[in-house]
Design goal:
18 strands; alpha/beta; pyruvate-formate lyase- activating enzyme; 415 residues; 3 domains; 35% helix; binds iron/sulfur cluster; OB fold (Dihydrolipoamide Acetyltransferase, E2P); binds S-adenosyl-L-homocysteine; 5-stranded mixed beta barrel; 5-stranded parallel beta sheet
Length: 415
């Protein structure tokens, strides 16, 4: 039996695509192996959103060159956002790679009709379901629209059928994915919205939880917020990247909202969904960002108190508007310092938020076992560990929170 190995870096969309590739390979008789030395097929799923992700992927790829030399029969394939339209150029630069295929496309040696219907590998309790591919936004710093193309929504009925099948196989939680889930459906004749999709999915037997990400502050609707608040299976967790706290920077980033709009939206979410977990992405050191403008991001984090903030230093991406029109003029030292400032601030904020859960009862969906302890997440996306001899896999469990930290909670079972 041939063996396959998939190496993945990057966003949830990449993880979702790797899970689907794995399922297709297994359907074709391949077995998964952890050690590349045992593999007959290696797939590298790349990310280019920042330079360091790109460097890691290319470094990984270079590592496979001697392997291919020693075993020419091994198949090496590269996918993800590193693969651009100029495949010929990539083939010339990396002759030891057998196949390049773009993010989200079917591997060229497999049947295309199977790819569009591929489900993630195995019945995991929680999995990702892409609902809209690509992005139409062209934020000045971002390479994603250049690599993943324009928005394309999947038909609502196709998603509902897929989630029904996943639930039948034992999936209890789905996370609906898109670069901007608020755009879902605008390119379909019936114009379904995310709120309609959530309503349909909420009725699926055997499915316990529904998450969705990423929301765009310029597009998130009141109807969506109210629908998410009302539907019992929709987790009270919203991923709403602010990117910066200064209006000048938001404008230069071409984000399409002001910081006042953003704060207003957060108030509305908190009014409709009390105790909602809030997640944001922030970029520090975008071209021209002054110390005073950075301080406005510090203020945003201090005021809003997000549960999670994904922090990144601006990384110039070839071909983007920012690279074409602006100089990368914030020094690496200033970027690093701003990053550390926010990391420290956010660690303090989340320490405080999580400490408030001490002694409270939380509900988690058990996703697995690590070092002898069960783990799962709350609806607000807090990771919780607990010990118990019974099998809790895929079950909703109530826990009393005994210990908290910025990264995870420890609980005991509460029958
Ligand atoms: N569609 C999502 C996320 C896309 S990329 C959104 O609109 O938020 C994921 C995150 O990577 C972004 O939110 C942004 O914070 C970060 N990012 C994207 N391009 C970047 C760049 N050139 N430098 C640093 N961070 C970047
Ligand atoms: Fe990139 Fe902006 Fe699209 Fe997100 S919305 S993928 S940040 S261009």
């Amino acid at each position: 039996m041939p063996n396959y190995h998939i190496w993945t870096i990057g966003c949830q969309m990449n993880k979702a695509e790797s899970e689907r590739l794995a399922a297709l390979f297994e359907e074709n008789g391949y077995l998964s192996v952890d050690d590349v030395a045992d593999a007959d097929l290696i797939v590298i799923n790349t990310c280019v959103v920042r330079q360091n992700a790109e460097d890691r992927a290319v470094h990984k790829l270079q590592n496979f060159k001697p392997l291919k030399k020693a075993r020419p029969d091994i198949l090496i394939a590269v996918t993800g956002c590193w693969v651009d339209s100029n495949v010929e150029k990539l083939k010339t630069a990396y002759p030891f790679v057998d196949y390049f295929f773009k993010a989200g496309e079917c591997p060229p040696w497999l049947d295309k009709s199977r790819w569009s219907q591929a489900l993630p590998k195995q019945p995991e309790p929680a999995t990702y379901v892409p609902i809209i591919h690509g992005c139409n936004n062209f934020c000045a710093y971002c390479v994603v629209p250049y690599r993943r193309g324009r928005e394309k929504s999947r038909p609502l009925s196709e998603i509902v059928c897929e989630v029904k099948e996943l639930a039948r196989r034992g999936t209890r939680e789905v996370t609906l994915l898109g670069q901007n889930v608020d755009s879902y459906g605008h390119d379909i004749p019936e114009k379904p919205e995310l709120a309609d999709l959530l309503t349909e999915l909420n009725g699926i037997d055997g499915l316990y939880r529904i998450r969705f990400l990423t929301n765009h502050p310029k597009d998130m609707s009141r109807r969506l917020i109210q629908t998410a608040a009302r539907l019992e299976k929709v987790c009270k967790n919203i991923t709403l990247p602010a990117q910066a706290g200064s209006n000048e920077i938001l404008q230069a980033m071409r984000r399409g909202y002001t910081i006042e709009d953003y704060r207003q939206l957060v108030s509305e979410i908190r009014r409709e969904i009390p105790d909602a977990g809030l997640v944001s992405d922030i970029i520090v050191g975008f071209p021209s960002e002054t110390e005073a403008q950075f301080e406005q991001t510090v203020k945003l984090l201090t005021d809003i108190k997000f549960d999670t903030v994904h922090l990144a230093a601006y990384s110039p991406r070839p071909g983007t508007i920012a690279v074409r029109e602006m100089a990368d003029d914030v020094s690496p030292e200033d970027k690093k310092r701003r990053l550390t400032t926010l990391e420290t601030l956010q660690a303090n904020i989340v320490t405080e938020i999580n400490a408030q859960l001490q002694g409270k009862i939380v509900e988690i969906l058990v996703e697995g076992k690590q070092k002898g302890k069960w783990f799962g997440r709350t609806g607000t996306d807090k990771l919780v560990f607990f010990s118990d001899s019974a099998n809790h896999m895929g079950k909703l469990v109530h826990l009393m929170v005994e210990k908290t930290s910025p990264w995870s909670l420890q609980g005991t079972i509460n029958y």
